[in-house]
Fold these 4 entries.
Entry 1:
Amino acid sequence: MFIDILTLFPEMFTGPLHASMLGRAGEKGLLDINIINIRDFSRNKHHTVDDTPFGGGAGMVMAAEPLFEAMDWLRARRGGADRVVLLSPAGYPFSQAVAGELAKEKHLVFICGHYEGVDDRVAASLVTDEISIGDYVLTGGELPAMVVVDAVARLIPGVLGEEASVLEESFAGGLLEYPQYTRPREYRGQAVPDVLFSGHHARIDQWRRRQSLWRTLALRPELLANVALSREDIGILRAMQTEIGHLLERHTKLAPEQDGVL
């Protein structure tokens, strides 16, 4: 996969994109990441890439010209990209499903916005996708680009080396991942569940599925709306809800009346 990242701060990508899995993916020839400095395509002598917004207002806006020029250069060099992604708070939410879609492409371009935003002609004419990694404000699109690239790259066949691990991780099947343990078997009074030493793979799989369902129900219940649940899964969740109900009922009986007390 070819990934081109258009940014005002190329130095931000030096460490994250050359270490760990992404670095090894590059060495294997599975991933070719090119960092492009948007300032190189500015036509003024000071290489400025922003200006005051028409109509007034606070802050500065990234100009359209350098980005259009950069995309023209990319087309001449590599041809058209499969997807051009603008990292933007106005974009649709990034998810594991979106990462899976992007991982199927051969050539991705990421545009990192900055300042108060990007001239809207960029989004209207150059961009295929606007993506947000969350409802909060960052100084620019560089960190979101790193997040998306990392999530996408690890789905490329051969990058992780252990394809089964991709399928079992959190969000891959819509549920949070089950608890993981390693040596020692007991540490500071906390023991690893005995079922994991049983050698009974069906029982282990059943325990892991139950734990995934429990974690998802407790921490991210909204995820269950989009998960394909089996009859067994539904039975497990109903049993969990019943158990929670009994716990709350016992707690209510034991707790002193504190109406109106914070």
Entry 2:
Amino acid sequence: MTEKTNRKMPNLIAYHVTEGEDGNWTRIGAAWDHEDAKGLTLQLEMVPVAFTGRIVLREPKPKQEAGA
């Protein structure tokens, strides 16, 4: 990952979402657009090991951007 990407706010936040009634959302990383707009770099801070659930990418909320 380049130094420029480290300074830029993420375009998307990565969450692991569990199945079931509680539907727990855990932030696991973030993604940044490539300069050529043809892809994303996904940086995971943790990797989910649960067999149920999914990884969801969402736009950050304004207060998340400040702390990203």
Entry 3:
Amino acid sequence: MIRINLLPHREEKRRQRRQQFYLLAGAMVVLGALIGVLVSTIIGGVIEAQEDKNNFLKTEIAKLDKDIAEIKRLRSQIDSLLARKQVIESLQGHRAETVHLLNELVRQTPEGVFLRSIKQNGLKVTLIGYAQSNARVSTLMRNLDGSEYLGQPTLVEIKTATLKEMDDRRVSEFTLDISLERPKEEDKVAVAGGAVK
């Protein structure tokens, strides 16, 4: 016997195709969602890793900034210490100047000249004193000009004064500027070399 299918086969095929389409569309949506979640997770991980790197770099930069500040502070301390060292070395190099000044004044002061005051300001020395005559002041100036450690005597003032300590004797009161002459570096080396020999 022949069987005739009276069921609407076309509708059945359409229904099957529609089901396949919905299944396929659902699978695509799920696959798209999975891919979106996967991509989002990967991008989130990359961003988090980059943020970790950035935070690490920030902390290292902060440490380096502290180190740089410490280095600057140490450099300023070194500069300060070097400046102090130079001052001390210059003081060490010139500490005998006062001794030379006093020795030379004792040697070069002629008879009849009395020094009342000696003031030093850097390399300039001001002498105030009394002399029996103006000629004695001239002799003092010539002697000081010929000295190894003193030079450039300049008479600032000379006037007549009466000293009560010397029975109202009339003397010449004078003010004289001289300059200290520091030995040059070659002389220092020569003196140091002579000391070593």
Entry 4:
Amino acid sequence: MLYDCAKLEERDRGVTAAVEAVQRGDLVVLPTDTVFGIGGDAFKAWAVTALQNAKGRDRSMPVSVLVGSRNTLDGLVYGLSATARDLVEAFWPGPLTIIIEHATSLQWDLGETDGKVAVRMPLHPLALEVLRETGPMAVSSANKGENPPAKTAADARDQFGYAVSVYLEAAVSSDPMASTIVDLSGSRPVLIRAGAISHEQLIEVAPDLEHRDQ
């Protein structure tokens, strides 16, 4: 089902349908502040496997996680560094993905993660509404194989069809930029990918930020 969330009545039904689908272990497509994402419950192994299969990926490319609250991080790790908390406070919700060591007690399988997870809190009201009901979701850009990321939920439906239970249509940026990725799993923060948040913005918060190639 595709729901046009620009219409209030459809939005409410769509959010409910998406939350119920994720709770069943099905896949959904939803907008974020960067691109449309395809995702499922991060704690249901079969949902993550279905996501990887739909994308045409294997376990060597682990799936990122979206959360609906900064506080959710405390349940995913044993402890966050001061730098990590400062970056999250400054740039979440928004286009900053952080790589952190996750708690070994977590019952999830996101692929070959080496004990780490890439986490983001998106700045999109519809995504946040869903995430606050579902909890952490394993999410990847809504495209199959080498296709470009879908610009609408309808585009995503053309690619994924019945592999996805619910599609939420809503406006996203007409010129989206990928999220900036910072690895916080080591002793110092490392900029892995430049994106919507600039290096200059990052070093105002994390002066000891390093580049991956340094």
